[in-house]
Amino acid sequence: MTPESQCLPPLSAEATPMPMDSVKGRAADAMVETYRKYYTSGLYDNRYPDVSPFALERVVKDLEGSKRILDFGCGTGRYLMRMLEHTDAELIGFDVCAIALEKLRKRLENHPKRHRVRLICGDFNECPDYDGAMSMFGVLSHIPTRAGRLATLRGIRQRLQVGGRFVASVPNGMRRYHKENFLRHIGLGPREFEGTPLEPNDIAYSRLTDDGARLDLYYHVYFGGTFRRDLSDAGFSVNKLEAESLLTETTISHSLRWAVVDDVARRMIPAMAGYGLYAVSSR
């Protein structure tokens, strides 16, 4: 235990672990399998090799002062590895994909600050309390059903210390998957994902890896009002909601030049014009 962690207040009686039972089922299992293929193929890391330095700067600022930070849906550590360099906090990397965490574990093997990281696969009940949390780049959108997403958000909140902050980003339905959403609304698109009926603004689609493997994905697209509502219904106080970026994540993660352009542009646009929505909430 580091000296900083000893300063954390004890876990309150209210913050008992949440089993998140509503996240389980065929659809959730299918998404775990999809991400196993996604990471194994290398497609994910090729599409998103790094985080924008400006996106990182914003997260670091919004979680400033946190002594222990949860990275929910950390994957192979795109944000976690950078947070390790830019903060002094203990970091908890949580993900349901064992392959992703194994890749992250290997990245940490010879890292001089690896003692500040704890990785947890799948069982949120193993997670200690924290005073900062993050869930970036649409992790919440891959959790089937609104009940499942709310259970997840409530679980994150229950482990968050009073006054702690939670930053999250999700895809903006004003900018993404218009065709798929429209076809489903008029009855021409998929109506379920692995036996789970699709709810409003749910998308089911497929993507091919470079070696031809098919990835079947579930995605929920948010709008500003629905994102704020879900955070509020989970018990968070929403402090700010803004555009995550103007350009696509692939563009700004591959090019520093475009990342600079994007950082200037996104400051001038409303949340509804963003490629994604970015929120800072507190307990």
TrEMBL record:
| GO terms (BP aspect) | methylation
User: Could you tell me the keywords of this UniProt record?
Assistant: Methyltransferase, Transferase
Supply the Gene3D superfamilies for this chain: Vaccinia Virus protein VP39
Q: InterPro entries, alphabetically?
A: Methyltransf_25, SAM-dependent_MTases_sf
Q: Which GO terms describe its molecular function?
A: methyltransferase activity
Residue stretches making up the Methyltransferase domain? 69-164
Q: Where is this region: Disordered?
A: 1-20
> What CDD domains would the database entry show?
AdoMet_MTases (cd02440)
Identify the domain of life: Bacteria
- PANTHER family to which the protein is assigned, alphabetical: TRANS-ACONITATE 2-METHYLTRANSFERASE-RELATED
What's the name of the protein?
A: Class I SAM-dependent methyltransferase
